[in-house]
Structures are given as structure tokens and as C-alpha cells.
Design brief:
With 110 residues, the chain is mainly β. It is built from no helices and 6 strands. 0% of the residues lie in helices and 18% in strands.
Length: 110
């Protein structure tokens, strides 16, 4: 009997395919790229804003003016910030009234 590819039965496939070690359906468990769908940037100061070249795991924006320190919004322009960290601002958050330039730590005890 002559054997041809047509006479050799195909092997049965497993009912469940297994993923490579280290991977989960929600992403990587260690190492590698966290999100292949977008560029991510290092957030060295932990404020949620990134800077510099893209990295494997980080934040989705690169708008941080100074990723070595936290910066705060200075809405009244007096040099003193307030509130949560922002991408670009001043290096302190000691303004007790960021809506009034005349009230700040040098002119009024906050």
C-alpha cells in the first residue's frame, strides 16, 4: 500500500490552547510590554504625567514639564500652587487661595 498525505489522518487538536508561561488573558504577569496598542511613557515622579522616550510600561501621556518633581497649578500667577499635581506648574502647593494673587504664604498666613 502506498502512503500519501491523503491517507495519513490529521492529529487531533487539543480542546483548549495553552498560553505561554508568564502571560494571562489580561496581560503580562511580569516583564514585557504592558500595552501594545499605545505608546507609554515613564512617570518618574508618580504624578500621572510622563516624559521622555516611550517605555514598555508607564503612563499614556508625555506632557510632564519636569518629571523629577511634582508640580502644582498656580491659577492666580503668584508663584504658589495648590491642589493635585499637574503636568506643568510650580514646585509647591502652599497657596491657601489660588484664586486671589494677593493671598499667598508671603502676604497672608495660610
Amino acid at each position: 500500500m502506498q502512503i500519501t498525505m491523503a491517507t495519513i489522518p490529521a492529529p487531533a487538536l487539543p480542546s483548549v490552547l495553552h498560553q505561554a508561561p508568564g502571560y494571562k488573558s489580561t496581560g503580562l504577569t511580569s516583564g514585557g510590554d504592558c500595552d501594545d496598542a499605545r505608546l507609554l511613557y515613564a512617570d518618574s515622579d508618580g504624578d500621572g504625567f510622563g516624559a521622555g522616550a516611550s517605555v514598555a510600561c508607564g503612563v499614556a501621556n508625555n506632557t510632564d514639564c519636569d518629571d523629577a518633581r511634582l508640580l502644582y497649578a498656580d491659577s492666580d500667577g503668584d508663584g504658589f500652587g495648590a491642589g493635585a499635581p499637574v503636568a506643568c506648574g510650580v514646585a509647591n502647593n502652599t497657596d491657601c487661595n489660588d484664586g486671589n494673587r494677593a493671598i499667598n504664604p508671603t502676604t497672608f498666613y495660610c
